Every structure is written in structure tokens, then in C-alpha cells.
Amino acid sequence: MSESTAFDPRSAAIVIVTFNRSGLLTRLLTSISAMDPKPGRVVIIDNASVDDTTAVVESFRESIGTEIVYRRLETNTGGSGGFSEGMRVAYESGSEWIWLMDDDVEVIEDGLARMGAWAPRFRSIQGRRYDYDGSEFYWQYRLSIPFGIPIPFAPAGFDESNYREMNSGCFEGMFIHRDVVAEIGLPDPRFFIYWDDSVYGWLASQRTTAVIVNEFVLRRTREIRQWDMGIRHLNASSDAYRYYIMRNRGYMKHYFKVHGAYRPVRFALGTALTFAKEIIRLVFVERKVRGTSNLWRGLGDGRRVAREAWEPMPPLPVQPVA
Q: For 33, 69, 252, 296, which has the most beta carbons within 10 A of its beta carbon?
């Protein structure tokens, strides 16, 4: 890798979105306290939690070893709104690199150094994660753009380069340079949850070479019911996710249209495959049949969203790095 531009850990901001999970947030902030090196700041976006999240954040201000910027929102804006606001705060604070994560992970002690080692070469980077049980977490890092769905069995291994190009994104670990953020704008809060990071990662990959690197930098701290399919797992979901995974196809369609990537027949087939996958998830992972109404409701609302007047998120004004 090129060493033309040395990475300064203090130029990075960790952005965390949390909602009523102060216990998990405590574990994450504890892991950040143990990091070496540490980022220049930690931005915490609280989606209007009603537990003791504020008290937990305040308890770390003196011990975490870096600046904490805490924003408690008046309403729950979902992960999409939280990451949009968190990235805005980090960008306006002058952070050069922005590392996004949910509250249900821990950071590996040298995780920032591992990510920073790739920073001279790439501007949109995804690290690897350990699952709750210590196994390797498999993430579908490539989208089939015509169908608008993840490619189920994208190769999981790495060659001697130790990276693979990707055209998607995951807000549980995306490490992105401010210049890319300025070009594509903030994450779209209209998604609320689901497909937001996939679309954002795709937008980033249109402007730069986006990669997943063979570096374990995060560990999941929340156990989720799974169906072990051998080469991958299928996780349990929720009624809210079932609704938004279908509704937000409407927003995805808008983005693909704007960028000339929309293919009506194949995208419709991708929507049908997404619906079928969620039925499989209900039956084989959650072992129930109730919940299909949320899929149908999301499908109908997604069609309405696709017909509405719409504009993509705008680029950001160029600001100096802190």
C-alpha cells in the first residue's frame, strides 16, 4: 500500500447511533476507552432514548480519553436519520475520516490503526466483524444493481491483496473519507431503517474504489436468532424491518433512476425475491407466519413512494479539515 499520506488517528471521528440500549452503549464506550490509538472525537447520536443513555454518556466524558460530542434528538429518526445527523456533526467538526457504527458492537483495541493502514490507498473502507459467538460475521458486500438485492454468495475469501472491491455499504463499520461525503451528501434519513447503507455504499462506489479489507476491527455484542445455512446465516428480523425493507424499495428505485441504473423488469423481480426472502426468514428463523401484513403494507407504501416527487440528498459545502 502507498505511504504517500500518513494516517493521523486524531483526524477520525467515530459516529455511534443509539436508541434505548444503554447497556450495549456502555460496552462500546468501554471498548473505545481501551483503544490505542484513539480517534479525535466520538459523536453519539441518541434517537430520543428514554432510558439512562444520557447519564451513561456523561459518565464517560472524563475517562474515554477523547472528545465526546453528544446529540439527543427530539424524536426517533431511525438508524438512517441518526447516521445522517452524526455524519453531519462529524463533517462540520472537521473530521477527515468518519467511522460509523451501531451501539451493539465493540471496537477491537487496535481497530483504528488497522483501518487507518488502508487510508492512504482507499477512501471508502469496510472492515470485518466477529459475530456474537466469536465466529466470522459474513456480510453481503456486493449488490446486483439491476435487481437491487445483495448477491447471496459473493466470495468470502481474500487473496494476497487482502481486500475485495465492493459496491455496497454497511453502517456497522463503514470508514469513509470526508471528500466522498461531500460529493454524495449525507445518508438519506427518509429511509428510517434498511437499504440506507446499501444505497449509500453504492453511491460511494460510484465516486471512488470502495473495498472490504481483511481486518477484524469490530465485535458484535448482541445475540440474534439465526438460521445456519452452512455457508452463511439468516438472521431474525422484526415487523418494523419487514415493513421498511419493502417500503424503501421505492427510495432505492429513485436513486437508481437518477443514476441511470434502473432496470424496471429486473428491479421488480428483485422486489419479489426480497419479499420471498422475508417469508423464508419468518418461517425458518422466527418460526411463525404472522408478520406478512407488514410486508404487504410496505410493498404498497413503496409503490407510492416511487411515484412521489423526489430529490436525492445534495452534496455538502466544502469545509476545511480541522
A: 252
Give me the number of domains the chain comprises.
Answer: 2
Cell digits of residue 86: 452524526
Let me know whether 175 and 261 are in one domain. Answer: no
Whether residue 192 is found in the same domain as residue 107:
yes
> Cβ(130)–Cβ(107) under 8 Å?
no
For 177-222, the pLDDT digits (tens) are 999 999 999 999 999 999 999 999 999 999 999 999 999 999 999 9
pTM value is 0.94
Structural domain including 261 reads: 236-307
Checking if the pLDDT of 71 tops 70, the result is yes
Q: Which residue from 106, 225, 219, 100 is spatially nearest to 169, judged by alpha carbons?
A: 100
DSSP E strands in the chain: the ranges are 12-18, 41-46, 67-72, 97-102, 105-107, 124-130, 143-144, 149-150, 163-165, 174-177, 210-220, 226-228, 233-235
Q: Quote the DSSP letter at residue 44.
A: E
At which of 194, 223, 252 does a domain end? Answer: 223
φ, ψ at 310 (rounded to 5°): -155, 145
Instruction: Measure the CA–CA gap between 109 and 14, rounded to whole angstroms.
Output: 14
Both 255 and 164 in one domain: the answer is no
Same domain flag for 44 and 152: yes
Q: Which three cell numbers stand for residue 75?
A: 424524536
Q: What is the pLDDT of residues 180-191, one digit of tens each?
A: 999 999 999 999
User: H/E element holding 198?
Assistant: helix 196-207
